[in-house]
């Protein structure tokens, strides 16, 4: 039986949103202090995790019926943006944990509570890989596969494996049109998988985005769902009209903008006191630096405003009962807005890193780790130029003219 999450009144929603953003802001000093230890350990230490759980920041996208916050997308964005000003790895892990937790809107309520009822419950997931197979069997699937990029794997109790649905002979199960069925997401305890520590990378080092694998693991059908499948949804709040992919993208853009805003703020502090070698003026007195700082500020503000406006527009439409998910043009708008924001954030961080000169190259500076984190963030799929193609296709369509 499907459920409809009771929507709080606008004043209640605004008050709760402000509380959650304030909680995130209060954690920034802790994240600042923990940054080096997070990177050295390559996962989030207990003290950071305790604070994030106490603030309920891993529960932002879990339905209220399952003990979650079920916030609107803009609140989600603002929380992650603030966290990223403290530490990008921590913000990334919160985004990933929240994105995966949307499974609770698709699983049966009793199953969702089994997975997410624990107030410290977190699940991790890697992207779909065509080699992973979920072989149909009595009562569910036998899953065999290996996945990568399971951010937050160290502090997660559950994992998800997105796999191709196959017949008992191993061939893909075909739908009515003769095409393979949509991949199924199987949810299983981390203890059932082999997790391999492979996360030796240049940035976002504290996310523990490791590999994991299972072999011939039975997963009951009730612990499986199809991502973004309207027929599988059991929660009907407007939040769950967004695609999981686009909510991940929203979070990534928030993390990118948070990194960039903090980097720019630190550079402004530096520019007020630093006179480069061989110069007579402080950086802040240099006309080129002045222009670039002004432009950087506008890049962050404008791309941030565009993301917020884009997601607010669809959230309002969803709250008013629009359809069974965003229209293709709205999905394209969401995807391109978040991708554009990540690109603008990278431009700002690149400017800051170069303009700060040798100050930026030392470990322990306010710039070095953030530069690496931002470069790593923009290497993933939601920041690829291909995300602009769908928007261009919509704009160039003949029926869009007028």
**If classified by CATH, what would the architecture of the largest domain be?**
Up-down Bundle
Evaluate the radius of gyration: 22 Å
Please describe the biggest sheet, giving its number of strands, its sense, and whether it closes into a barrel: 8 strands, mixed
Helix and strand content put the structural class at alpha+beta
* Overall pLDDT level: 94
Strand content: 5-15%
The percent of residues in helical segments reads: 40-55%
CATH superfamily of the largest domain: Butyryl-CoA Dehydrogenase, subunit A, domain 3
- The name CATH uses for the topology of the largest domain is Butyryl-CoA Dehydrogenase, subunit A, domain 3
As residue ranges, the low-confidence spans are 1-5
CATH class of the largest domain: Mainly Alpha
Order of helices and strands: HHHHHEEEEEEEEHHHHH
Shape: globular
Give the number of helices: 10
Number of strands: 8
Compute the separation of the termini in Å: 44 Å
Number of domains: 3
